[in-house]
Amino acid sequence: MTRLKAFRMIRRFTEVSLTGASCPLNCSHCRGRYLKGMTPVPSGPRGLLQLLEKLSQRGVRGVLVSGGLRPDGRLPLELYLDQLREARKRLGLVINLHPGYEDRPRVLEQLRDAVNVLDYELSLSPEMIKGVRRLPFSPEHTVKVMEAMMEHGHDVVPHIFLWHPWSSPELLKKELTIAADLGAKRATLLVYIPPPGEPQPPAEKLVELLRLARSLWPGELALGCMRPYSVKPILDRAAVEEGLVDRIANPSPRALREARVEPTLYDACCSLPENLLSRFRVK
């Protein structure tokens, strides 16, 4: 079995937000709080590039570019495409982008030489799409968006919820099958983090769902950074002890000790392709 890969953002990889802490979409389970931990892009016509230049000088080798989505589900990318392209070409930065539900051919074409990876949340749950995300489209549209990204030659890493309040094994199976059929080589599994006051997911159920996902997914499978702390001791231990994932973001140290697993550590986002990992390897 291939050695487990663990990922933590330490100093070579960081996150930036094109919109600061602002998010017009304002999803009910987040309300912009995840953006507050990202470095905001300064205002000005070259603000993003200037920020990336400073980060590069400090030793940063890669960035996750994200931000708040507009009501149409897209990240406001238009002003930043040239800056991303220059940062990748001149600074040699690895660019991982959360574009939202971007399907415009012109933008996807321009992104081809501006980014290395697209992270994309694939969901077929109407409750997640319209209720939580407040997006104005159908589950079928989320599939068409990913299809458009793939058709334009992007390395797309689908992010699929292992569990959320409206999930089911059947839904998980369908989402993973569609992602594989579209040609994705890597997939990242997320666990919905309930707002305060709502019940946490049972860790034992998550382990069962993870076993199902492993049996279905033919490529590399990652357990992403979105998962409640309360489930990590049980979920993370099963993930590494049973070899259910190839990659894990921010693994529980206790789970690694108890499972007696020493992974290869990378200072990066878990979405990066194999050929880019060497520059982020820690040990």
From TrEMBL:
The keyword Nucleotide-binding does not apply. Gene3D superfamilies: Aldolase class I. The keyword tRNA processing does not apply. Keywords: Iron, Iron-sulfur, Metal-binding, S-adenosyl-L-methionine. Residues 13-212 form the Elp3/MiaA/NifB-like radical SAM core domain. GO terms for molecular function: catalytic activity; iron-sulfur cluster binding; metal ion binding. This is Elp3/MiaA/NifB-like radical SAM core domain-containing protein. It comes from Pyrodictium delaneyi. The lineage of its organism: Archaea, Thermoproteota, Thermoprotei, Desulfurococcales, Pyrodictiaceae.
